Amino acid sequence: MGGGLWRERFGSFFTNRWLVFVAAMWLQSCAGIGYLFGSISPVIKGSLGYNQRQVARLGVAKDLGDSVGFLAGSLCEVLPLWAALLVGALQNLVGYGWVWLVVTGRAPTLPLWAMCILIFVGTNGETYFNTVALVSCVQNFPKSRGPVVGILKGFAGLGGAILTQIYATIHSPDHASLIFMVAVGPAMVVIALMFIVRPVGGHRQVRSTDGISFTFIYSVCLLLAAYLMGVMLLEDLFNLNRTLITVFTVILLILILIPIVIPVSLSFWLEPRAPEEETLLPEPQKQEPYRLRQDSSELIFSELEDEKPKEVDLLPARERQKRIAQLQTKLFQAAAEGAVRVKRRRGPHRGEDFTLLQALIKADFWLIFFSLLLGSGSGLTVIDNLGQMSQSLGYDNTHIFVSMISIWNFLGRIGGGYFSEVIVRDYAYPRSIAMAVAQLVMAVGHFSFAMGWPGTMFFSLLWSNCKQYI
To answer: Domain of life here (predicted)?
Structure first.
């Protein structure tokens, strides 16, 4: 009996959606290696004799690789998610591994266009990590998409600071070793987690513990960011010995592992959920009635979206929900009496799941696409040229600014996910308002960069990194 209970608990642990979420956070820590370009570009520039224009072209190749996720999204629809992760890990290993061989003289020097291709291929591996992590966790947490996406994208930004700290522990004098870590580190983590990060059953369940779990995750995130910031400042202001740096790195790894407490406690220590908490039953014969009711509700919702007055969308959130509930009740009654014919919708509505082809024909998709393209470009320019900018202002150690921008990146993405959800749910404003405000604040940081005032590098990085809210 005891052995069977433990086997059941272990089975529950490996199918727990919080385990998937925590593993996706670790996976995303390796999906922000593109932000380390500011640290590795001076090494490439010095080893290969490039000028600033050539380094800028490498930065463009990196940005394209980080942004072109069409192939990753397409492969995730036809391949298992673990296979997509394996493809991304191989791309990352081959791309940046070859760059490391060229920079260290272990491979023949390649022309600039070939180096651009290698960096494109290596950075494009990140898109597979991003896609698999987001697809899995958004399906597992459909009612908490904003916080989930914000936390996952935040860890993608924090990856640069994490790898920089590990690099400071292992290979600090050898700057080319950072490229080796960028090539090998993410591949090792992805291979270890590729069978864990996937959609799991029971994802429609809303538990009373979800709020506490998200609060715990947010607390760990803030603690991690504060710790990294403190360690970074200590390493910059004082000449710390190798032992102390190693201790700091071990504590960092412990903080990264702390969120595993959530799935462990939910699977092994908390009491099993009550039957009334079940909203998705695993038996196929019990799923079918639910599916039929869901289809009927979706048809009514489709009709409601088509027929509701336009002024309803302009009402405050609570009033709008009340009006929609009234309209839905009337429509259900009319459909039951045969007074109206509920028509079949031709495609999904906003907030529902879209296939790739369905999204490509929607104006909303292209509005978001061009907003991101135009709004994030200036921030990426700062990140790509951060090493050269800090050197031009008289700073010798560029790693501190790369780590700092990774930390602000992390906090910005988490804050963007949280506050945009508050804006939408509580105040019924579109997320694009937060995007516009972030763009204005980022312009202040860019202006400060352009002026080149003494001592404003830290201030400018803070404001310029509002790109992460976009």
So the answer is: Eukaryota
Half-sphere exposure of 68 (CA within 13 A, CB side): 12
Supply the DSSP string of 84-152, one letter for each residue: HHHHHHHHHHHHHHHHHHHHTTSS----HHHHHHHHHHHHHHHHHHHHHHHHHHHHH-TT-HHHHHHHH
For the chain, the domains span 2-202+209-271+354-469, 280-337
**Other beta carbons within 10 Å of 400:** 19
**CATH 1.20.1250 assigned to 2-202+209-271+354-469:** yes
Cα dihedral value 365, 64, 375, 39, nearest 10: 140
Please state the pTM of the whole predicted model.
Answer: 0.70
The answer to whether the beta carbons of residues 461 and 401 sit under 8 Å apart is yes
Span 253-281, pLDDT tens digits: 999 999 999 998 888 876 445 434 444 44
Q: Report how far residue 220's alpha carbon sits from residue 238's, in angstroms, rounded to the nearest whole number.
A: 27
Nearest to 415 by CA among 256, 218, 232: 218
Question: Measuring CA to CA, which residue among 317, 320, 296, 316 is closest to residue 308?
Answer: 320
Q: What is the pLDDT of residues 300-332, one digit of tens each?
A: 444 444 455 556 555 666 676 677 677 667 665
**By C-alpha distance, which of 202, 199, 198, 166 is closest to 181?**
166
Helix (H) or strand (E) holding 158: helix 145-170
- 416-447 burial, b for 16+ CB within 10 Å, e for fewer? bbbbbbebbeeebeebeebbeebbeebeebbe
- Three-state secondary-structure class, residue 454: coil
